[in-house]
Amino acid sequence: MSEEVDAWVRDGERRQRRWLLAGTIALVVAGLAATIIWLLISSNAIPAGDKRAIDTVEANGFRDVLLGGVDVLACADGESSRHFAATNSAGKRVEGTVCCGLSGVGKGCTLRFSR
């Protein structure tokens, strides 16, 4: 009987170690995912949508809008970004960044221009 109890205890200890390892792995993966998401949001590495960016640039009097990629670190924390080139009312090509709130609710889009 003692051998059966010892085997039962050892089996329980093995199971407990496996669950502890699985929990630790899950916690590490969740932490890494949260860190990556936070870095993407805080560095503006999430692109603003095409329609939203073009509408904002055109609403400010520009035409012939060409969108580029994400303009990392060009906007405030919690904003998406998109580089653009467009023609102003004087016919001169200008470049800048469209900065939009991530949710689209509450904060619209603004333009920031290259120096």
Textual characterization of the structure:
The protein is 44% helix and 24% strand. The protein has 115 residues and is of the alpha+beta class. Strands 1-2-3-4 form a four-stranded antiparallel sheet, covered by helices on one side. A hairpin with a 5-residue loop joins strand 2 (79-87) and strand 3. The protein has a domain at 50-113. The radius of gyration is 26 Å and the shape is rod-shaped. The N and C termini lie far apart (83 Å). The protein has helices spanning 2-42, 50-59, and strands spanning 63-67, 79-87, 93-101, 109-113.
Short description:
Helix content is 44%, strand content 24%.
The parts where pLDDT drops under 50 for at least 5 residues are none
Number of helices: 2
| Helix proportion range | 40-55%
Oligomer: single chain
Major pleated sheet = 4 strands, antiparallel
Morphology:
rod-shaped
Major sheet: arrangement of strands: 1-2-3-4
Compressed to H and E, one letter per element, the order equals HHEEEE
Rounded mean pLDDT is: 88
The first-to-last residue Cα distance is: 83 Å
Derived structural class: alpha+beta
What is the CA-based Rg, rounded? 26 Å
Strand content: 15-25%
> How many β strands by DSSP?
4
